[in-house]
Specification:
It is a single chain. The protein is α+β, with helices and mostly antiparallel strands. Helix content is 46%, strand content 22%.
């Protein structure tokens, strides 16, 4: 459906003409019988052409089942008498979806919800190409959200690729693009789409929390070990360069063992004074 913008005449001129017809009919009613009735009928017909368009709204005009055009300018206007006018809001609206239960790409049940900000840019499409465009927006938004959520894991523990939790901005952009593709037929423009809720489903929430904690501990341990190796290497190298002590392979291994235990251990190291020798 291609939208046609109407350029109707000002309604104030028609209101003035209605007033003239009514006044003339009332004045001539004492002397004539037919002419006043004609003026009153004309005034009644002209009254059916008056329409008011509020700011940021449009009025779609149809006449005997045929689309005439759309009035997109606010004000008082006059259109074809006896035509049918339907008002469509052009204001920015938002739809907040309910919490949907979806399986991510790994099969884990998750709860997800989103808010969609949109507005109507083609009133004719919104009225004639879909049945109840607001319901159409709601259903298509939930469908697109389910589709996008099923393409990615909730969290990526391999540190490669996108995930719903770590890449919220990218997921929101992809959701907005898919929504625009689905809603373009209804004359709706998607301004923004954002996730408002994301969580594991209740039946696996505790298990996945333990997995997250284990993954965090493992990452922290790996970082500690990498730092400890660097510190031990630096200590051995500086001792050798400064000539503080000459270490054979056995003493070097013992020092490395002691330093690694002291650095990596969660508890403070207890120093042991060795007054003898390793041999």
């Amino acid at each position: 459906m291609k939208e046609k913008i109407l350029r109707p005449i000002s309604g104030f001129w028609v209101v003035a003409l209605i007033a003239v017809c009514v006044g003339g009919g009332a004045y001539l009613a004492q002397d004539y019988t037919v002419l006043p009735m004609v003026l009153f009928v004309i005034a009644g017909i002209l009254c059916t052409s008056i329409t008011v368009v509020q700011p940021n709204k449009s009025v779609v005009v149809t006449f005997f089942g045929q689309y005439v055009g759309t009035i997109a300018s606010s004000g008082l206007w006059a259109v074809i008498p006896f035509s049918i006018r339907k008002t469509v809001s052009l204001r920015v609206s938002n739809f907040n979806s309910v919490k949907l239960k979806v399986n991510d790409v790994e099969g884990n049940p998750i709860e997800i919800a989103a808010v969609v900000v949109f507005k109507v840019v083609n009133s004719a499409k919104a009225l004639f190409d879909v049945d109840q465009y607001m319901a159409f927006v709601e259903i298509q938004s939930e469908t697109a959200l389910r589709h996008v959520a099923s393409k990615y894991p909730y969290d990526n523990y391999k540190d490669s690729g996108m995930s719903l939790r770590a890449n919220a901005d990218e997921i929101a952009k992809e959701l907005a693009v898919e929504l625009q593709d689905r809603l373009s037929i209804s004359g709706v423009e998607v301004l923004e789409a954002r996730l408002t809720h994301l969580a594991y489903s209740t039946e696996i929430a505790s298990t996945m929390l333990q997995r997250q904690q284990a993954s965090a501990i493992l990452s922290a341990r790996q970082l500690i070990v990498e730092g400890a190796v660097g510190m031990v290497d630096m200590a051995i190298r500086q001792l050798k360069e400064n000539g503080v002590v000459e270490l054979d392979e056995e003493r070097k291994a013992a020092m490395i063992n002691n330093l690694m235990v002291a650095i990596v251990s969660e508890r403070g190291a207890n120093p042991v004074i060795n007054a003898g020798s390793l041999y």
